[in-house]
Amino acid sequence: MNKIVLAYNFNPERLQQLRQVCMILKVNCKAVAPEQFDDAVGFLAGVKDCPQTAVNPPENQEDKLAETLEETAKKAGEDQDVVQVQKEAYQLLLQAAQKEMVFLCGFDMHMLNRFLASVKKSKLKNVELKAMLTPANRQWSGRHLLQELAAEHVYMKQFGKSVHK
User: Fold this and answer.
1) How confident is the prediction for the chain on average, in pLDDT?
2) Which of 15, 37, 41, 46 places its Cα 20 to 30 Å from the Cα of 129?
3) Would you say the pTM of this structure is higher than 0.85?
4) Sheet of 101-105: strands edge to edge?
């Protein structure tokens, strides 16, 4: 399999910086347009026999999720401070889902380490959301992957500090 980096939510300047990193490492870089976010990541990466149709989360669930969280908290008689914390976590989740994400395909551990070191040394410095192609996620949509990584990112930001002590 060819090495390729799928780039989600990159502005033109940062995309150019990512392309420079990829060029140095002799890795293809493909910017994924928002209208392709519902396509399977394996299809976008050129994985043989991977269909374009992805396993997607239901669309527009973010608003419904926020309403449901608030209603459930009120019905359960939870403290309004708890409701506010849930709202804030939800807002962080929405913001995180708009962040840049790189999806790495065909990378072994050595190449992954080279890529991460090169990003750190470049003007990019960091890309918070990163994932690699696996048999389990190859039929996921980019949108699904972004939501999963964003949720993980929010969780680690809120709770990870206490876990790592």
Assistant:
1) 83
2) 46
3) no
4) 28-31, 4-8, 101-105, 129-132
Which among 146, 133, 108, 129 has a CA at the least distance from the CA of 42? 133
Geometric angle at alpha carbon 43, from 154 and 127, rounded to 5°: 30
pLDDT band for 59, please (50, 70, 90 cuts): low
> Please, what is the Cα angle at 109 between 106 and 114, to 5 degrees?
90
CA atoms within 13 A on the CB side of 139: 8
User: Are the C-beta atoms of residues 52 and 43 closer than 8 Å to each other?
Assistant: yes
Query: What six digits make up the tokens of 73?
Result: 């908290």
At residue 40, the 3 state secondary structure works out as: strand
Please report, for the chain, the start and end positions of each structural domain, with discontinuous segments joined by +. Answer: 4-163
- Match 């396509």 to its residue by tokens: 39
